[in-house]
Amino acid sequence: MRLDLVPRVRRSPWLDALSPVLAFAAAVLVGGLAVSALGVSPGAAFLTYFVAPLSEVWSLQEVVLKAAPLALIATGLTFCYRAGLWNIGAEGQYVVGGLAGGWVAIATHGAEGFTLWILPAMLAAGTLAGLAYAMIPALLKVRLGVSEILTSLMLVYVAQLGLDYMVRGPLRDPQGYNFPQSVSFDAAARLPYLAEGESLHAGVLVVALALALAGLVLARTLFGFEVRLVGASPRAARFAGFSKGRLTLAVFAISGGAAGLAGILEVAGRIGQLQPEISPGYGFTAIIVAFLGRLSPPGILIAALVIALTTIGGEGAQIDLKLPLDLTRAFQGLLLGLVLGADVLARYHVRIVPGGAAGATP
């Protein structure tokens, strides 16, 4: 006896829409069983994870601030994944973007006179640095056929070690009592806050604009059609005259630029200086966000908010309920697995075939 996956002749739009909701409910149920096994009330855990972060203004702002870089990076990755390419190195491109843009802030530290150009220069430097860093695995893929999965992933550690070296050496604050960090950025090198006394900054607006632009490109342009066609049917794309190599460079440039921009937005926003670690793993978590959002900018925005909510809730659960923070990461991974499984069941139905060798044609 074996199980076969048979494509559904007619896919239900209701099933497609409800599958992420059902997957989330299943993840919450499994998570409740896990916290119960740890001796914590599932009801208390649910309130701490999903209700408490929505009950205060400051925590709502934290959810938005954590969701912003996740949504921006995931939207960039969507172009790669829709084209059937695998950029796993967004974390490194994020770090390089933050480092390059931060270097501009440090190089202009203490500048007087006209300084309005500094922040745009930082954003441009971060975006271009992330783009250039993503070109390394893209060119290796196009020219030499090297797996983009391995090269992009290995370059993450190069970027992280490079940042660590720079903040402990050339970019370290000489008046910082030997702490591994740069000088604090000047006001001209910081993103302005949206309201006095609040933590939301203008980077949130940049992310919103980027998501709207990406949605427009994917849905309404020839380039967006090319991305979808190459990913869905490479052979048809070749017959249509689309170049896989050129598209590889283009989508890696977009995803790398988005990750680099997210890096400098975070450095110029929440952090305000260069440190050995400027990311809690945004580049890797954004992969989960991209697939939870069905590789669609509107869905990615919702998924980023959900993941950010669980992250803030997980921090609260660690303090209030003494639950390990790794439980939050396990929940996020479980949620991704269940969503992908639900997608499979929405597109295929399972058929039990009695007898015969596995994989044989009935």
Structure description:
It contains 13 helices and two strands, in the order βαααααααααααααβ. Strands 1-2 form a two-stranded antiparallel sheet. The longest helix has 28 residues.
In short:
The chain has about 350 residues and is mainly alpha-helical. Helix content is about 70%, strand content about 5%. Mean pLDDT is about 90; it is low at about 360.
Separation of the first and last Cα atoms = 11 Å
Please summarize the sheet with the most strands: 2 strands, antiparallel
**Helical residue percent band:** 55-70%
Q: Determine the strand fraction and express it as a percent band.
A: under 5%
Can you tag this structure with a few keywords?
single chain, 362 residues, mainly alpha, 2 strands, disordered C terminus
List the helices and strands and how they pair.
Blueprint: E1 2-7, H1 13-37, H2 42-51, H3 57-82, H4 90-107, H5 118-144, H6 148-168, H7 203-220, H8 222-232, H9 234-239, H10 244-271, H11 282-292, H12 297-320, H13 326-347, E2 348-353
Antiparallel strand pairs: 1-2
Helix pairs in contact: 1-2, 1-13, 2-12, 3-7, 3-8, 3-10, 3-11, 3-12, 4-5, 4-6, 4-10, 4-11, 5-6, 5-10, 7-8, 11-12, 11-13, 12-13
